[in-house]
Design goal:
It catalyses: Na(+)(in) + 2 H(+)(out) = Na(+)(out) + 2 H(+)(in). Keywords: Antiport, Cell membrane, Ion transport, Membrane, Sodium, Sodium transport, Transmembrane, Transmembrane helix, Transport. The chain is mostly helical. Helices cover about 65% and strands about 5% of the residues. It is built from 25 helices and eight strands. It has a six-stranded mixed sheet with strand order 1-4-6-5-7-8, sandwiched between helices. A two-stranded antiparallel ribbon has the order 2-3. Helix 4 (about 115-135) crosses helix 6 (about 170-190) and helix 12 (about 295-320) packs across helix 16 (about 390-400). It is globular and about 95 Å long.
Amino acid sequence: MTEPRQATTTFSGRTRWVRQLETPLREFLRTETGSAAILLAATLAALVWANVDLRSYEAVWGTDLSVRLGDAAVAQDLRHWINTGLMTFFFFVVGLEARREFDMGELRDRRRLALPVLAGIGGMLVPIAIYAVFNGGLPSAHGWGAAMSTDTAFALGMLALVASRFPARAHTYMLTVTVVDDLIALCVIAIFYSEHVAAFPLLVAIAIFAVTVVLKSRSVRGGFLYAALGIGAWVALFESGVEPVVIGLAMGLLTNASPAARVDLERASDLFRLFREQPTAELARSATAGVVNAVSRNHRLQQLYHPWTSYAIVPLFALSNAGIPLSGEFLVRAITSPITLGILIAYVVGKPAGIIGSTWLVSRLSGGRVRPPVGWAAVAGVGTIAGIGFTVSLLIATLAFSGPELEEAKFGILAAALCASVVTWIVSRVTAMLPRKTRARALLGTAESIVDLADPVDPERDHLRGPEDAQVTLVEYGDFECPYCGLAEPVVREILADFGDVRYVWRHLPLRDVHPSAQLAAEAAEAAAEQGAFWEMHDLLLSHQGDLLLPDLVVYAEQIGLDAERFRDDLDAHSGADRIEEDMDSADLSGVSGTPTFFINGRRHHGAYDIVTLSAAVKAARVREALRS
């Protein structure tokens, strides 16, 4: 089923379409990157405000605010409402991301779980040890928690800014490592930085959370119900003396993530069709619910809360906590303070040493079976940028210190963030100076990619275009009536023309609920394949997407020289239906629900499929294959 190579040399054509197909991870990284500038601006504003008028700065954030319900009340100053109240939403988003990585991301391959877990743990233990060296035997030793946790938002944003040449997988690896980091940091807050714990409110919080777990396990829906349970657990933890932000993380971890299932999408289409035929308020509600429920709750909640936490809550946290007076006397005291030095060295030296060392140790002990998804230069960049310990570090510092000690801790955290960014930039520049092949290996590494394609390509079965022994295999799940497949077709043609070592595979995924002629067109392509003319029919169908009725298909068959009577008989007998169902089953197993969906060497391609983006992905896959050979 392979078309001769020379048939691909005449392909040409471009598409102006650059529609972005966003994925949760891509959206997460983009939001974190964009929010880094706002976070930095908020930090600078806090420093300016505190140094211009420290009294007004403290007066604003020290304003008391209470929430009362009858005789019951929760009262804190404004800074603590931000730290323990609004930051609960931040950790809720962290929990959502951790669960999504476990369900759908790099950690869905459980064999890969050990590496980021141990790298995250190593990236915390080494900084803690360094902090202990500077503060051992001193009253400040109890502040070790302020020297261990990475600020995911700030670090991802600065990584994109100062090390833009690093591959996207470096961001993904950092995200998986910092997910572990955040989980451990919240446990540390709950266990070591909660004072005077009251047993009864704590038991109430545990009971509320247990009810939530049971309801989740039984797939009980109801956003307001879970919001009420979350608020109840937060209040109970607050009254118990345990830092209530941990409930945000716990609730996020309970929220499953999954791709949109084809059956749910088809149900949403049916509900919308009913609404289109009879536009009543009741059917409008049903159609809306069908569309909403087709997307996992994890993704919906991320879209709702993540922009708020990145662009409002975390910058507000920085504005209320980062202000310290930078007088000459203070700077002299800070640069000799064991708190400042402990935090600074812990982050700038300890973080990269812990992450890089743990990653190397796991790779070594596993005999190379477990390796980082990126090269060692990228691992080094991840380690150095992880020295930005802003949000959680400041939060723990406010719990562990007060007065001058808190100011010294804040200065160490801010200085570490600056130094970590500079060191990462240096790593990026040094890597860029390496010879091309060495640089590619240093950035991309040689680890095997996660294979998303459930059914491997079979040259004896699949429809192939290009050389069978090509380094890169591009698989498309497509629908002949889908307009986006039609727009992507010239891109595929140009890639086949530009790259001599790419083979292209078409697999059927007719979206029968929205494209009434898609199934018949797919069967026509299979009927043509019975006469050795799959690709000729494939090209005609995609170039005439508005004319896919039976008479049109017969005309196309005659146009490419098929036996028209045999072609009709095959269509009448639905001889290609089983083959199409097999492709659709493989799409379901691969998590494909829409068209076109591309896989490059078994790895799902996320993002746009204009000529620039798809060509870059093919080039990257070719480089990775060359490094492994």
